[in-house]
Amino acid sequence: MPRYLRDGALDPSEKTSAERKSLTEPSSRPRNGAPRFIPPEHSSLPRKGWEQDPLIAECYRKSVDLLHRNSSPHGILASAGSPKAKSRNYLSVFGRDASICALGMVGSGDRRLVGIARAGYLSFVSYLSWGKEIDLYGNALSILFDLPEGALRRKIVGFLREAGRNGSNNIPITLNPIRKGSRHWREYMERHNLNVPHQYHNGGVWPYAGCFRVMAFAREKKRVLAIRELRNIAALNAANDWQFNEWFHGTTGRPMGMPGQSWNAAMFLLAYHSLRDGLTV
Fold it and tell me: What are phi and psi of 43, to 5 degrees?
């Protein structure tokens, strides 16, 4: 049985075949609560009526419920209540997280969620990195905010599409993690074994970030790709009986971080309405 450290990180002394697998090598079955995904070549989601897909419909309902539970008079809390969340001050309104959540909460049209979104402090943050790490999240944002044009825009959209053809659709926020020895490596990345390759901000899979990829595809009229990605994100949120985990390991798909994440739910709502209603950021 492998040993895991605080924050769910794998003990570096433990080496498993799953840890050594490439992103292009899908697991034969889910492990450690990892969700199942739709292989792109076998997807049969319809262009119309996709809202009735049981997983997508259930994720929408669960997302609204979670946001209601995480609401406070001062805005949306970062995560659901738990001893772990309390010990790490996650039962607070994080300016960045709340601003991202506000997009989906307002987009849902739910009157209570709209009111809570208005109560929170909004500070919008976006970033784009063009390093060798290949920031998939940042590139999706660049499409949404119309930064690239012409051939560069087509190249980015094509890359976002190809990045999903790894058999599991386990799309990390950065495709090539920073490794120790790289000039971009920083000592803090080893703290608590959190930012080692394929974990947390260094190649982990973040459901909320994947929703921006859905919206980028929708904006580019790639509806089949957008619908497929939306359902994959629903599968992530559904892991461990709808735990809405913060992030997943980039190669094993193991649920990690704080459960009950508000921005997972809010961004799913925004991605859903971007597909159904043409809502844009």
Answer: -70, 135
Query: Can you give the pLDDT at residue 28?
Result: 33
Number of domains in the chain: 1
CA atoms of 148 and 139, how far apart (whole Å): 9
> Where residue 139 falls among pLDDT bands split at 50, 70, 90?
confident
DSSP letters of the chain? ---B-GGGPBPTT---HHHH--TTS--SS--TTPPP---GGG----SSSGGG-HHHHHHHHHHHHHHHHTEETTEE-SB---HHHHHTT-SS--HHHHHHHHHHHHHH--HHHHHHHHHS----------STT-BHHHHHHHHHTT---HHHHHHHHHHHHHTT-SSS----SBSS---TTSTT--GGGGGGG-SSTTBTTBT-B-HHHHHHHHHHHHHTT-HHHHHHHHHHHHHHHHHHHH---SEE-TTT--EES-SSBHHHHHHHHHHHHHHHH----
- Reported confidence tier of residue 236, pLDDT bands at 50, 70, 90: very high
- pLDDT level of residue 110 (50, 70, 90 thresholds): very high
Residue 23 belongs to some domain of the structure: no
Higher pLDDT among residues 211 and 46, named by residue = 211
Q: Are 74 and 119 in contact (CB under 8 A)?
A: yes
User: What residue numbers bound the domain in which 95 lies?
Assistant: 45-277
Alpha carbon distances (Å) from 11 to 177, 192, 252: 18, 10, 14
Residue 32 in any domain: the answer is no
User: Nearest to residue 275, comparing CAs of 218, 208, 231?
Assistant: 218
